Amino acid sequence: MENKIIEQINKLKEQIKNIEDLENLKQLKSKFVGKSEFLNDLKEKIKTSSNKSEIGKYIKLYSENTTKIFEEKKNELENNFFLKKRNNIFLEKTNFLLENKEGKVHPLTKISFEVENYFDSMNYHYEHGFEVELEKYNFDILNLPSDHPAREMQDTFFLKEKGYLLRTHATNQTARALEKTKKQVFRSYSIGTVFRNDENDATHSFQFNQIDIFGIGDYSIANLKMTIEELIKKLFFSSTKSNFRPSYFPFTEPSYEVDITCPHCNGNGCNVCSRTGNIEILGSGMLSPKVIKNVGKNPDEVRGFAAGIGLERIAMIKWNIKDIRNFYTNDIDFLNSYDKGEK
Amino acid sequence: MLVLRKELEKFVNIKNLTNEQLKDAFTNLAYEVESIEKIPFAKGVKFGKVINCIKHPDAEKLNYCKVETDGIVYDVVCGGKNIKEGQLIAHAIPGSTVNGIKLEQKELRGITSYGMVLSLSELMGFDKKIIEDNEASNIFVFDEKEVKDLSIDPVEFLNLKEEYVFDLSILPDRLYAINYRELAKELGALLNVETFKLNCPINIETIDNQEKINLKLGENAVRLTAFHAKLNKNGKTPWEIKKFLYLNNIKVKNTIEDIINYVRFYKGSIAYVLEKTNNIELNGRKLNNIDIFNDSPISTNNNDVTFVSVATKEKTNYMKEKNLYHPFGEMNIKGTNFVDCKLNTLIKIAIEAGYVDSISKKYSIDSNEYNDVKISLDNETIVKYIGENIDLTIVKKQLEKIGIFEKEGVWSIPKNRIDLEVKQDLIEEIVRFYGINNINSKIFPITREALIPNGYKFTKKKIIEFLIKYGFFEAKTYQLVSEDTAKKYNIWKNKNLIQLNEKYSNKLNTMQTSLLDGLIEIHLYNYRQEKEDIRFFELSNIFESNDKFSFNLGLIHDSKINEEEPSIATKHLFISLLKEFGVEESQLEFRELNNKEKQNIFNPFLSSEVFYNNELVAFIGEIHPKILRENKYIRLDKVKEKLYYFEIKFDKFIKKQFV
Asked: pLDDT (tens digit, 9 = 90+) per residue, B198-254?
């Protein structure tokens, strides 16, 4: 039987030499695989034979060999067809000028540039963030202890390697920067991608972007309010008002959620704000004494504020974008027109 | 927590407040009102008497009844299991409203039914699921001895008047407030209105000698407290307790759980009913089988009910299940280690549920009790925190109403306020009553100390500004991809894939190994929308390992960029972009791709690896037609489009700027 197989394979090798295009290769494949008498005979035999395992071995031997030959030939034909030996421009000196044309920044980047301008003007340090993080900086230092519900698998993407996760907020940079700095007065911000274990739909996304800011020094709740109010005015209109609501976040105390008057209807109620006139926009507060303690500083000496803002949320409100998935589909029409009609 | 407006009015004088004003008051106190809803009690219902009841001739589960209401005999088809002659029932005649729907006469299998006989859930406008099991499929039968006047509305007879439910979200630092009494007290203080002292109609006595109760506890029990709760004669009847629970959307079970739930909402306690109480026996009887409203195994008096709380060690995750954050355990950070507070927490829950216990010196649910916790907070610190000198006279008076007293900078904290430990906690309370929106925002002096410029930010901005001049769109794509994709496009040969824990079923479970896949995908998306000359780039971190990443730029375009020789444009962009960062073409070394796998991604005749200081920093070239074939750019060997790509590890060039 082995000899018969070798015979078949040789026959195939002989015939395949003359094949020059993919269409003929397909036909040959059908001859040697799909409609092969030799193979079909074996397949018939195995049904009735008492020596099923031996015949099975032969079928396997034949199939593996033919598949390999066909794969190699296909690769060769594809390369011959698609690729031509030519001058590799990348290895040569070239001289060329590309004409200017109008492109565009992503809407989330457009927002982050505005944020950067604001915080840079106030002399904040910028911290480049990263997504793969230790539980310590994403949770522990930030006063989210081990039995906190946010640490459940349904909220957080934990990684294979124990102790690591995809950060759930950009506040990990605050934890790191707070721990690192030796300064008495220090202001810092970071912008970046964060992850939550969510299904993607019009209002949820497993990936989104956050701005995280903090400042330590002789700062008060009044200073926090000013910082947020000014930022909101920069992002929307100088007439956009911020309203603070007491709330709770593990890493700040006191904590405040901030609503703004809807920038589309100036608080009169429209479809952007679900007719309420107000839109919840961000979370903020004074740095929790527990967090300050956790980074090895004395809460009686160190005081500061912090805030976290979702970039997608800002963009969706600002440009009345209804589906968060638009930010990741990258439809050119959307990217071209998202800010049309901006006042 | 659901708060019934009428019930709350028994505790605090808020009669003059509109629902909106009450909502604002809750908001100022840090309780977010998710919704305000009117309970759809049945309307236009009358008492009726079942004078005749037979099986429906044409429907097994229905009954055909004659109901006399207001002297008129109606035909009514009814599905209630327990309906029989002689019962006094609530009859919703045609024209009345049940669950918000107006009833009309209706033919049911050949018999015209004039309205319906109501069940408890229909009377109260509630989901059947919360009605106690043995009542759920029944019609509600009234006690004829109690109903003296048949002309009154049965809904009114049950004392169900217009009622609004406020759905409050109580945040994890304010667990002490999950009860009417505490909410009322805070509203009273904030609005400066009268609060009414109400005694809980259930008296709770501790039975100190546990030997008296034959409790067979599992090994897991860490603490058990038993109570003997007496139904106050002038207090609520079992119906009143049940009604309260129904209105609060809690299922009535006729077991001790009902009392625990009731006391929790009424008096305040963070006790929750544990699910594993079914193996616990009380005087030889299964705890969950005892109908607390009808028989109590430890009492001799029929008016008594028994209240037992149990915490088991096994249920360590029980706090999470109930969506409560642990309010107690002190965190002890040394690296990432925590004191495991779970056991501790459970004991405390048992104590809280138990109301009084010898172990519980520090915590109590009674805000009139004080412990040794005192917080020093002077005026100067308050001013520093708040940012202005505020008049504390009124705030202090308000705080006194919720049990917080100040004397010479030292503040006494009532026992129920487990959330108040340090001065920042107290400042939060002061601002809560003073009003965050009454604090004037204030600019701080901007110190102009020199900061180290951030290379990433600078680089990002410069790249974007450069590329959008040449018609490129900045894209953002998902960083999580499938394992296959991550492996296929692993052009940098990263050894470790960054993957989610195996427990997740997500298909996208691996961090991308290059920007290639995402950029091809969005090019394809736009290509299919019949866009021409599509140009995209993306900037993102690419992780080599958990602790190491590079900051990469990926750029893609098709042959429309320059019909004669598109790759020359790719190279031009590459060279002139790096030139912006001070890198000359002569400093870069372009080498042929030598690796077979990479040759499957890039056209080996039209691509290159780029080295800088002998380090691989970029790939540039035409994307291999095989890849395009897989993505259907090429059909029946007809080449429709070619794609060109480069990816640069940009951090190699950031350093040059900012070392």
From this structure: 655 444 433 333 322 232 322 222 223 333 333 433 333 466 677 778 877 788 776
Q: How far is CA A241 from CA A119, A258, B314, B507, B534, in A?
A: 19, 10, 50, 43, 40
Question: Would the CB atoms of B472 and A246 count as touching at under 8 Å?
Answer: no
Residue of B nearest to A222 (CA): B441
User: What are the backbone dihedrals phi and psi of residue B606, each rounded to the nearest 5 degrees, phi first?
Assistant: -140, 60
The amino acid sitting at A248 is Y
Quote the pLDDT of residue B4.
Answer: 86
Q: Give the tens place of pLDDT for each residue, B3-47.
A: 889 888 988 999 999 999 999 999 999 999 999 988 888 999 999
Q: Is B281 helix (H, G, I), strand (E, B) or coil?
A: strand
Q: Which of B444, B452, B549 sits opposite A130 (nearest CB)?
A: B549
What is the chain A residue with the closest CA to B520?
A: A330
Of B326, B424, B452, the CB nearest to A289: B424
Contacts of A252 (CB under 8 A, 6+ apart): A283, A284, A285, A286, A287, A288, A291, A305, A306
**Nearest 5°: phi and psi at A292?**
-60, -40
Cβ within 8 Å, pair A104-B468 = yes
Contacts of B569 in chain A (CB under 8 A): 96, 98
| Residues B646/B619, Cβ–Cβ less than 8 Å | yes
How close is the nearest chain A Cα to the Cα of B500, in Å? 4
Radius of gyration of chain A (CA): 32
Q: Is the pTM of this model over 0.95?
A: no
Nearest chain A CA: its distance from B57 CA (Å)? 51
Reading the block at residue A207, the tokens are 């990936």
Residue B364 has pLDDT above 80, yes or no: no
Is A154 near chain B, with CB under 8 Å? no
The per-residue pLDDT for range B38-73, each reduced to its tens digit, is 888 899 999 999 999 999 888 888 999 999 999 999
Q: Residue B493 gets which letter from DSSP? A: -
Q: Write down the ipTM of this complex.
A: 0.86
- A101 Cα to chain B: minimum distance (Å): 4
Q: Quote the minimal CA–CA distance from B329 to chain A in Å.
A: 9
pLDDT at A140: 92
